[in-house]
Amino acid sequence: MSDAHAHHDEGWVKKYLWSTDHKIIGMQYLFTGMLMALLGGYFAYAFRMQLGFPNQPVPGFGLVSPNEYNALVTNHGTIMIFWVAMPVLIAAFGNFLIPLMIGCDDMVFPRLNRLSYQIFLVSALVLLASFFVPGGGFGGAWTAYPPLSSQAKFSLTPAGSTLWLLAVALEFVAFLIGGINFVTTVMNSRAPGMKWHDIPVVIWMIVIASIVFMASVGPLVAGAVMLLMDQQFGTGFYDPIRGGDPILWQHLFWFFGHPEVYVVLLPAMGIVIEVIAVFSRKKVFAYKMVLYTAFATGILSFFVWAHHQFVAGIDPRMANVFTVTTLLISVPIAEMLFVTIATLYGGSIRLDTPMLWAVAFVAEFLLGGVTGIYLGSSGSDIYFHDTYFVLAHFHYTFVPIAIIAVFAGITYWYPKMFGRMLDERLGKLHFWLTVIAFNFIFIPLFITGAAGDHRRIYDYTKFPDLARPELQNLRALATVATVVMLSAQVIFLYNFFKSMRSGKRAEANPWQANTLEWLAPSPPPHGNFAELPTVHRGPYEYSVPGRDLDYWPQSDPPEDDAAPDAAPEAAR
Amino acid sequence: MIERLVPQASSFAGDIDGLIWLITLLVGFWFLVAEGVLFWLVFRFRAKKGEKAQYITGEKKEEMKWISRPHNLVLLCDIVIIAMAIKVWVHVKQTMPTADAKVNIISQQWAWTFEHAGPDGKLGTEDDLRTTDELHVEVGKTYHFNLVSRDVLHSFSVPVFRLKQDAVPGRVITGWFQPTKTGTFDIQCAEMCGVGHGLMGARIIIESPAAHAAWVAERSGERLARTGEAKP
Amino acid sequence: MNKPIATTRSASGIPTGRLAVWWVIASEIVIFGGLLGSYVMHRIGHPEFGDYAANTNTWIGAFNTLVLLTSSLSAVLAHQAAERGDGKRAAKLLRLTMLGGLTFACVKAAEWTMEIGHGFVLSTNAFWSFYYTAAGLHALHVIAGVVIMGIVAADAAKGRELQRVELIGLYWHFVDVVWIFLFPLLYIAK
Ligand code: HEA
Ligand code: HEA
Ligand code: CUA
Ligand SMILES: [Cu+2]
User: Fold this and answer.
1) HEC readout, A384-445
2) Do A156 and B194 touch (CB under 8 A)?
3) Which residues have any ligand 2 atom within 6 Å of their CB?
4) Which residues does chain A have within 8 Å of residue C2's beta carbon, measured at their own beta carbons?
5) Average pLDDT over residues C70-98
6) B62: which strand partners?
7) Does the distance separating the beta carbons of A452 and B5 come in below 8 Å?
8) Identity of the residue in A323, A370, A385 whose CB atom sits nearest the CB atom of B86
9) Is residue A9 a part of any domain in this protein?
10) In this predicted model, what pLDDT tens digit does every residue of B126-147 receive, in sequence order?
11) CATH number of the domain that B15 lies in?
12) Which of A167, A255, B48, B100 could lock B141 by a disulfide, CB 3.0 to 4.6 Å apart?
């Protein structure tokens, strides 16, 4: 900070670091998430280089040793899910959007909200610290299966495993606190007149996701306590020799782990549906159906967990039950996607950058979704389990969710967040480079996976059948594409920070959208609205016949005073 | 599809590849339709000057059918896939055809030990043959295996068999396979097991009956020579 | 700090504080649910747990159950007093509840000391691991409840934030109910 501002120092700390304002907290989550995304991306770069060009020093990292490789992969996965996808999709967008989109001035518990971020920050620092302790960072995969994770004599990372586990547990606490705040706020603090079917889809999705998270994480919190005790106090929860059971952890982990993938999917779907409605000037096709499919997904997600354990040594009869539930969950998700696609029909589609990202999300996620079917059907998962086919499957779901949909959201709400417009040309360049490079990373990995590449292997030359040059070329291709994809992010970062200072000033409602956040000034001041709004209609009344404008903000009073369902003026 | 990348060398490899084909046909169809409709709509309904979007709620009956019909068809596809998946699964993992021979598979950080029957053809006797990182089996015979782990989780994976099974400390997991093709192929450890996980490969050597008998004779000869016992 | 308007709204008709406490309890239920579920699964798979459980002292457990139930009663009475606006009485009753919690914790400490003296420690076997972990997690909740109750009581005595008397009471009942599950599982099923 420059000297001229030195006397504002205390104010700055209060405003940006110690704030209880939901928008600032949202930004704190966003920036922390972005930093962690860079770190997770850097890890991916380092281990992909090792895979593409084995046993050569990686520029900017050095030679990757086997235990470094394991730690890189493990922490790449952990960071991307718990410190990128969760904080950005749920906490950053949730914090920024919920009060604005339901028309109130803040969260119901602002100080609890600040506490949630602070715990989250500590969790990130603990994770970072875990790389620097003797023995190095934890390398037992993000799933942390015991006994490898529970006994230092197997993992060889006595301090790393405990710090890793502690970081994840703290992160859970942060999100439990945050989730309670989100759900309570949406239940209680909606603007007068906002009925449940007037709530924008993205808010619904964040709320449903928070509830699914809360309901699924509990057993894993208990499981994490037990794992911590095994690591540090010599208990035998997961030790078969002392009457424990290593598979218990797998059940607790996946009982959470599977719902978790929908915890991040739903908010991403919400963002995408929001963007698609605005940029095709269309009402969301069958709004209520979207909610029902989200509920159905949320509920079904609790009954599919063992599809990760088909060949893990569980009773083989259980696999049959979980095959049925796993395949059934494709029905509501397919429906959700169909509804999203149907919204485009009859639209007046503007392909601005947010819309490009939204369409790309649907296009790419479809491939991730349908490849899940190969894994959900027990018979074929015998072959695919723990191969790069699984890996490509979940990057085709996670990257659309945590990268593509996030970019749709950031480019869409950027004017509201910072009061300026992003550069469209740079935005489109960044879009095409990122999306094309992404396909060149993971299509080849589908093939190597189908050819038998198994996961978490730092050097395939040790496996004669896999050391074939055709496969090695595909691995190298994926690596080159990774470098391209990561480099493309420089364009984004440049655009992001430059536009913050010198972008075109944004009006309150640059996209001519209906939802309440666009009523507030860009960026919204503390307290958000000059006058708190009253809601008169649903969030997606675009292109209503008989109106001149093709949008109709939720807060505009009805034109016809005699309209029967006009909300009472006195409500304010 | 898969057989173009990895040979089929077990009796059930074809079943699994067939299942993969079926899934590819069904979900491939949906994938192409969905992508096709998506891109068609985006190009068909690009904004044009002076043209307003239509107001469609999607809540009327004749509009809902665009969702409910695909819904039912997807459900139908799911049922077909479930039926076939379970059929294959039950065959591979839930039934144990009678065994012609047995092997013990012992995993540990970071090596495989295999126990084969010796010249007497029985496992668990004095003349068993123990090898590390090398499994010898005879083509055409049905094998039962007992899989154990000495420390952490490992996974016994033979891609040419399309077979994979985790090893869990404290449990003995049984299973079966029947090699159908001679040759030497990879065995992988497919479960993260620590620093050496990336090194934990082995080879499976599928031999003709004659070659296998020769190997057994040779190896038990070596063993006897080493232990100094007299030849029987 | 000024309260935001968001905090004063109640679109669902349920006061915000009560709503939030219900969500806290819901998320705690799944935590204990996971732990106890794991215990029950082990218990079914290991009949010998019954023999280990024979070494727990049912009488001490029963006494503690009684103590907790009584303390819940005084929490209910405190809530009633707060409803009437009688902060002083509410505070008094809350402090009685705290006394119950403290008694529980002391008895627990004595009990553990005895058991550790007999050589039953955390790492003895999976039963004792569960025993100390589950009861320990519960005891932490008791202690946290007592601390928060102290703060609420101090406010209530001055007639402030009386609605919190009900909220801490809800939480206390939850802690009580968890024990109602723990007691038979760890002490009685031998
Ligand atoms: C957010 C991320 C995300 C999402 C949304 C999904 C969605 C799905 N996943 Fe995936 N999955 C992961 C993330 C995700 N997954 C991760 C991270 C792992 C690996 C964890 C690890 O081991 O490290 C994994 C692993 C994984 C496995 C275990 C594989 C193994 O290790 O052996 C399985 C098995 O069933 C599976 C299945 C599915 C299914 C059926 C869906 C379904 O929800 C998909 C539904 C969607 C569609 C089907 C597409 C739309 C539908 C149509 C176009 C209609 C046509 C369809 C039919 C006819 C069926 N996933
Ligand atoms: C959200 C989840 C997520 C995301 C986005 C990614 C992104 C990527 N992943 Fe990751 N990956 C996982 C989750 C994820 N991964 C998980 C769970 C595992 C399993 C771990 C385990 O086995 O234990 C895994 C494992 C894994 C492996 C397997 C290693 C092995 O088994 O040996 C590989 C190999 O290629 C890989 C590659 C990549 C690549 C090239 C990307 C690229 O797409 C990376 C590109 C990165 C970026 C584009 C981010 C930078 C962007 C910005 C800085 C912009 C600003 C950001 C925001 C606004 C959020 N990943
Ligand atoms: Cu053994 Cu991996
Ligand atoms: Cu899953």
Assistant:
1) HCCEHHHHHHHHHHHHHHHHHHHHHHHHHHHHHHHCECCCHHHHHHHHHHHHHHHHHHHHHH
2) yes
3) A 33-34, 37-38, 41, 44, 47-48, 73-74, 76-77, 80-81, 84-85, 88, 141-142, 391, 395, 398-399, 402-403, 406, 410, 441, 455-457, 482, 485-486, 489, 492
4) none
5) 91
6) none
7) yes
8) A323
9) no
10) 888 999 999 999 999 999 999 9
11) 1.10.287
12) B100
Q: In this complex, which of A383, A463, A544 lies closest to B162 when CB atoms are compared? A: A383
| Domain-terminating residue out of B94, B111, B135 | B94
Residue B34 pLDDT more than 50? yes
Domain span at residue B72 reads: 2-94
Number of domains observed in the structure of chain A: 1
- For ligand 2, mutation pick of A76, A93, A412 (most atoms within 8 Å of CB): A76
Nearest CA in chain A to B191: A386
Look-up: residue for tokens 């770190």?
A39
**B87 and B150 belong to one structural domain:** no
CATH code where residue A432 lies:
1.20.210.10
* B148 plus B226 within the same structural domain: yes
Q: Is B34 in the pocket of ligand 1 (CB under 6 A)?
A: yes
Over residues A35-73, the pLDDT tens digits come to 999 999 999 999 999 999 999 999 999 999 999 999 999
**Residue A346 belongs to domain spanning:** 16-571
CATH of the domain at B165: 2.60.40.420
- Do B220 and B123 lie in one domain? The reply is yes
Identify the closest residue of chain A to B198 by CA–CA distance.
A457
Q: Which of A154, A454, A542 sits opposite B53 (nearest CB)?
A: A542
User: What total number of domains does chain B contain?
Assistant: 2
Instruction: Find out whether the beta carbon of A156 lies less than 6 Å from any atom of ligand 1.
Output: no
Predicted confidence band at C41 (pLDDT cuts at 50, 70, 90)?
confident
Atom of ligand 1 nearest to the CA of A310: 32
What residues does the ion ligand 4 have nearby, CB within 5 Å? A 258
Ligand of minimum distance to the alpha carbon of A341: 1
C-alpha to C-alpha distances, B98 to B102, B142, C185, nearest whole angstrom: 11, 7, 44
Residue B61 has a pLDDT of 83
Residue where one domain finishes, among candidates B63, B94, B125: B94
Residue B229: per-residue pLDDT: 55
Distance A139 CA to ligand 2 centre (A): 16
CB atoms within 10 A of CB A82: 23
Residue C151 has pLDDT above 60, yes or no: yes
Give Cα separations from A46 to A60, A63, A68, A485, B195 (angstroms): 8, 9, 10, 14, 17
Tell me whether chains A and C touch (3+ CB pairs under 8 A): yes
Domain C15-188 has CATH 1.20.120.80: yes
Please list, residue by residue across A51-74, b when 16 or more beta carbons sit within 10 angstroms of its beta carbon and e when fewer do.
bbebeeebeebeebebbbbbbbbb
Query: What confidence score (pLDDT) does residue A462 get?
Result: 87
Complex ipTM, two decimals?
A: 0.93
pLDDT of residue C2: 65
Confidence of residue C10 (pLDDT cuts 50, 70, 90): confident
CA atoms of C23 and C40, how far apart (whole Å): 25
Identify which of A174, A160, A163, A25 has the alpha carbon closest to the alpha carbon of residue A86: A174
Spatial distance between the Cα atoms of B192 and B198, rounded to a whole number of angstroms: 9
CA A419 from centre of chain? 25
Kindly state whether A302 is in contact with chain C, defined as any CB-CB distance less than 8 angstroms. Answer: no
The pLDDT assigned to B231 comes to: 46
Amino acid at site A432: W
Q: Mean pLDDT of all residues in chain A?
A: 91
User: pLDDT by residue (tens digit) across A283-338?
Assistant: 999 999 999 999 999 999 999 999 999 999 899 999 999 999 999 999 999 999 99
Q: Region A264-281: what's the mean pLDDT?
A: 96
Across residues A267-271, what is the average pLDDT?
A: 97
Domain ranges of chain C: 15-188
Instruction: State the pTM of this model.
Output: 0.93
A 10 A CB-CB count for A301 gives 24
- Distance between first and last Cα of chain A: 42
Residues of B in contact with A284 (CB under 8 A): 58
**Where does the pLDDT of residue A3 fall: very low under 50, low under 70, confident under 90, or very high at 90 and above?**
very low
Question: Using CA positions, which residue lies closest to atom 2 of ligand 1?
Answer: A261
pLDDT of residue A4 exceeding 80, the answer is no
* % of chain C beyond a pLDDT of 90: 51
